[in-house]
Amino acid sequence: MDTDLNLAINRTSDIPVLDVSGDVDEFTCAKLREALRSFIREGEFRIVVNVSGVKFMDSSGLGTLVGGLRRMMENNGGLALSGTNSQVERILTVTGLDRILKLHNDDYTAACSLRTQEEERKTAVTQ
Amino acid sequence: MAAEKKTPEELEDMLISAPGASAGDGWKPEDLRMFTFLQGILNRIDIAYVATYPPQQCGIATFTRDLSGAISKYVPFSDRVIIAMAEELTIEQYPKNVKCCIRKGDKQSYLDAADFVNDSSIAAVSLQHEYGIFGGPDGEYILDFLERLKKPIITTLHTVLFSPGQNQKRIVQRIGELASAMVVMVQMGKDMLINNYGIPAHKVVMIPHGVPNVHRVNAETVKKQLGIEGRTILSSFGLLSRGKGIEYAIRAMPAIVEKFPDAMYLVLGETHPGVRNYEGESYRQELLQIVSDLGLQNNVRFNNRYLTLEELVNYLCATDVYVTPYINRDQITSGTLAYALGCGKAIISTDYLYAQEVLSEGRGMLVDVLDSEQIGAAAIKILSDPVAKEEMETRAYKYGRRAAWFNVAIDYLNLFHKLCASCRGPEAAVTGTTSILDQGKSN
């Protein structure tokens, strides 16, 4: 049984989508963390993380996503989650992290939320 | 009671950083703004756990430590309060989250503990129930605590007797009246509570026994680390007592050794402290005598001490066939069997209630109690067919994975939140709480 974490990057839009599948836990989250950091190194501060393929996620996986969000936000960007995954949704709700890490139905909606956030930020700055 | 102030490093350890993550990858200690931000975002729920607790050595103490620790990782700004069940005339060096002790035979200490909870910020109480850990006939003193309590109670039952005595039945029924929810670890336990004890169905929730988060590794690699390379390993672990039926597994070894001369049966764990107080090491001595009589000195090994989780997982990972030869057919849970599933092992077990359920659908082989011949035949069958063994291991691992502590913790947290949100009294209904086991069936 595959408990590895698999990552794939989709760059068909201006906001890249990181497809995550497998288990995101204490043994595998370093791989996800490194992928998120590599986006920042490359100057990409907005990213959609699609969690449809995630089988299980523990607090380490959750922490890695929050850490990624923090780094994106430090650079005036953001991180949005997409995909249908009741397990991830339940963890976000139970912990309260759904207030900052919303799970959008699809990549397009998640990307739109990031664009909206950026526009709001720009508007706030000009005002 | 106010929340304990935690250092950034403690928070990092609890929520953010994975064990083994390199320094600097997680939260920086100076990143206090984000901590403040998270403190405002993350849900908070202070939970008190009433149970035995390490350094006391028993399955429930280990369970409570693992459960409360797993939950805390998701709610790092909440208090984890342990109310430890302590034996009289003993002193233990408990960790700092043990805030209060109940002396088993001291009725007043049950009332004092309830007052402590009532006067605190504790939102809910998680009670681990097993008749023997509480004082009074059949542990009935725990009712004094529960009747005095004004906070929601979630009781996890570690024993559900099929044919309880009158007083035993009365106690469980009364707990059922006082608790907001009763958790059992197998479906069979749920059915028994509803049908045999008359507990309302809406109060009974099934959440599996948690298991460590283990990724499967090659057994041969671990065997080499443990100095047992080239051996075919069978094992059993846990605190040794007569109910474990280890002698039946030992008596199965001659037949196994005949087919697999390199076979070695590891009996891991020390004698149960309660048993040691009662009869010393006489059971272990009897087992050693059987080994000697059967000439199995090269095929059976004992490790007579309490193993750390890491040691335990290493031994399990090195195991080819795990055996629970227990002789009590009413046993409704087994931490050791759950752990073996979590490590994805081929398992042989006597057909006690818990084993019947968790080893169904090809996740292991069941044998009759007190039957060495069947244990031997099952082991030979498994070891003779590596393909079937691998399939059994994969099915076991898949089941165990869904029961990993990090999943079980979410089940419990979800239950705590729902109960606290829907009520402040004991008559709350639990609805819509499905176990991760059910959710994961489509995976």
Q: Could you give a short description of this structure?
A:
Chain A is α/β, with parallel strands linked by helices and 127 residues long. Helices cover 46% and strands 26% of the residues of chain A.
Number of helices of chain A: 4
The end-to-end distance of chain A, rounded to whole angstroms, is 54 Å
Sheet-strand content of chain A, in percent, reads 25-35%
What is the total domain count of chain A?
1
Elements of chain A, N to C (H/E):
EEHEHEHEH
Secondary-structure-derived class of chain A: alpha/beta
Task: Please bin the fraction of helical residues of chain A.
Answer: 40-55%
User: How large, in whole angstroms, is the Cα Rg of chain B?
Assistant: 22 Å
Query: Structural class of chain B, please?
Result: alpha/beta
Main pleated sheet of chain B: 7 strands, parallel
Shape estimate of chain A: globular
Strand % of chain B is 5-15%
Task: Outline the structure in words.
The complex is a heterodimer of chains A (127) and B (443). Chain A has 127 residues and is α/β, with parallel strands linked by helices. Chain A has helices at 29-41, 59-74, 86-95, 107-126, and strands spanning 5-10, 17-24, 46-57, 78-82, 103-104. A 5-stranded mixed beta sheet of chain A has the order 1-2-3-4-5, sandwiched between helices. In chain A, helix 1 (29-41) links the parallel strand 2 and strand 3 (46-57). The longest helix of chain A has 20 residues, at 107-126. In chain A, 46% of the residues are buried. In chain B, 44% of the residues lie in helices and 14% in strands. Chain B has helices at residues 8-16, 32-41, 59-74, 107-118, 142-148, 166-178, 187-197, 219-226, 246-259, 273-279, 282-293, 309-317, 335-342, 353-358, 372-384, 386-402, 405-422, 436-439, and strands at 47-51, 80-86, 98-103, 124-129, 153-157, 181-184, 204-206, 232-237, 263-268, 300-303, 321-324, 346-350, 365-367. A 7-stranded parallel beta sheet of chain B has the order 3-2-1-4-5-6-7, sandwiched between helices. Chain B is globular, with a radius of gyration of 22 Å. Chain A binds chain B through residues 1, 3, 23, 25-27, 29-30, 33, 55-60, 62-64, 66-67, 70, 86-87, 90-91, 94-97, 99-100, and chain B through 14-22, 25-27, 31, 34, 38, 41-43, 73-75, 213, 215-216, 344, 394, 397-398, 401-402, 404, 406-407, 410, 413-414, 417, 436, 439-440, 443.
